[in-house]
Amino acid sequence: MSNIRRACLVALGFCAAAALAVPKPGYYHPSSVQVGTTTRVVMGGDVVGGVQGAWVTGEGVKVKRIVPVPGFPRAAGRSERPFVRDWLYDLLEKKLPPDKRHRELPEDALADETDWQECDWWFYLDALDDLELQMVARDLYTPERYPQDTPALNHLLILDVEVAPDAKPGRRDIFLWDNGSLSAPHPFFVTKEPHLVEPFFVFPKRDNKIRLPHVLHIDPNFKPVPLPVHLDGQIWPGEVDKYMLRLEEGQQLVCSAIARELFPYLGDAVPGFFNPVLRLYDSRGKEVAFADDFYFLPDPVLMYKVPEDGFYQLQIHDNLYRGGPNFTYTVFCRDVKTDRPVYSPKERAFACYPQPAAFIPPKASSNLIVQTGTIDMPGRVNRHFFEIKQPGSWHFELYARRDGSPLDGLISLYGPMGDLPLSVAPLLETWDDNPGRLYVEKNVGDDEHPIIKKQMLYEGCIPQAECDPSGVYTIREPGRYCVTVTDQPGLGGEHYDYTLCISPAEPSFEVFALESACMVRGNSASFSACVLRKDGFEGDIAFDSTDDFEVNGGFSGDELETRVHITFKKGWEGVTNFVLTASGDLPNGKTLQVRVTPTDPGEQAFAYSHLLPAQAFYFGRPGEVLREKFKHPGPHLPSSKKGPDAKGAKHSGGKSCVSCHDKQGKKQHNKGKSCNECHKGKE
């Protein structure tokens, strides 16, 4: 193996190690907040132990503090959990006066050979607020590995999010940062309307035999709510969340769910992805409306004209009754005062993930024919005629699904027409789906042991984006030609619009950054980028510098991936975004400049790596540390438990013997067993 290749592999190893250290948020609950409020938001994810702070894009929204949630012991002592449970209910039932809220540990916890495990929150419940008490209670009533233990989700943080009264409603992004890295952005929403947030946990009665699914449902004491309102919650296995709405005759109810789009792909995605279903019942228990999906989008929109005053029940659940902590949702319920649909597929398609530059249809020019149309009724075939004056290779491309249209396009080329009607004109070519341009294959191994990893472009942004056809055809004689456009399944409607682009086939390229958020160390940052070469482009590509930054890096020859270094000429605080471009010389002597599309890789259940387009390319510098240590009135355990035990061996009760003694150079211990087990009866 050459030194260059060896150095590259070492560099890739360092890059992989660095990637593992990046905070990976999996969900936020609630995922939307109201202006003028401060909301406690629970974040579940991985690699968050070193998180020091958080940023929210846009003005008027700020994270005030971050509270880490400890890992609750599973192998607790036989008497420890009952002690915590009884104390918890005494606090909830307000049986303890303010001066007696703290409870001393029993003798079982103070014994030399105790099986009690240390936990800040368990030993000082009186220092917790309501949300933190709910977290303790849910852990106490949750059997081990139920629901399925997902390592990518089981580390928790609590974020206090403050929203100013004049904050602009809409989509924001949350970033977590530690000392060396910045997490990928996660969508978060700010609204004017009030919110109803499902409790983190509904406390059951003092009954140790209670069955788990019953304690995860919404509190039955929730009162009916008027419109408009945002409903925020989580769906657990087998759960159906139910909300009572107070509706009036004549209202046009629209309930719009955002769930799957909040985080469409998760690597350890068992049992799968959230596919929500909405159902509406009247006061007599009759189902009056149902919604599953919205055109080609998995998040439903339910519409219903209210016939009479009354209380209606809105239900939301997964279509297969799956669930998990990342099955979060927000449902916006309102009266639109119109009988027409208030959403188009384009508006909903880009609710969370934006249009990449390559999705936007180009404008007409001297060498580009652009024609638009709509398949406004099922079975319609639209015809577009054009003149070809110069033979050669021509590129035909349809923009529909990528532009938010539900059209599953099918295009056909006829000609040359002459005076012939279309019914007898020669059919030259037909193009349907075009999945080939959506994939980039990357060898993450070496020549001797190749490991081919597929990266799918755009799929995370627009489901079934490969439905847009494109192709190249060599036209040998000038004349009048025709391209027909239709919907492959034979559907149609007012939203089935499209843009047809016809141009001479020329080499081109697209550039993607493989991360959309970079931590700036000093004045510089680095990121990986890949290029998608199209129609035979083989030239070099360079990143463009500006007055704000200087970029070093590019693609030469047939390179598909490179490492890019960027140095900033001006300082700033917090997180900000920049537009990056790349340029390359075409065979005709012209220079093509494209906008770099920032993306974030997302695994689809151990299969493809989707490059999810991001709102912008963000760079951040470490700021104010927001992480707070747990505040309690004293040590976790009395000093008699902190020092040497009766046998004279120093150890931390409950921690593994390896973690307790490795730093002391001790070798005579039972690896993997708890420190108590190791030293029992030994010196």
Entry keywords:
683 residues, mainly beta, eight-stranded mixed β-sheet, five-stranded mixed β-sheet
Summed up, what is this model?
The protein is mainly beta and 683 residues long.
Helices and strands in order, then pairings?
Blueprint: H1 3-20, E1 24-29, E2 32-34, E3 38-46, E4 53-56, E5 61-68, H2 80-92, H3 107-110, H4 120-123, H5 130-140, E6 155-163, E7 170-177, E8 186-191, E9 195-197, H6 212-215, E10 229-234, E11 241-247, E12 252-258, E13 276-281, E14 287-291, E15 301-305, E16 310-318, E17 328-335, H7 345-349, E18 369-374, E19 382-388, E20 392-399, E21 409-414, E22 427-431, E23 439-443, E24 452-457, E25 470-475, E26 479-487, E27 497-504, E28 508-513, E29 517-519, E30 524-534, E31 541-543, E32 549-552, E33 554-555, E34 561-568, E35 575-578, E36 581-585, E37 591-595, E38 597-603, E39 609-613, E40 617-620, H8 639-642, H9 657-661, H10 675-679
Parallel strand pairs: 2-8, 9-10, 24-39, 28-38, 29-40
Antiparallel strand pairs: 1-3, 3-6, 4-7, 5-6, 7-8, 10-17, 11-16, 12-15, 12-17, 13-14, 13-16, 18-27, 19-26, 20-25, 20-27, 21-22, 21-26, 23-24, 28-30, 30-34, 31-33, 31-36, 32-34, 35-40, 36-37, 38-39
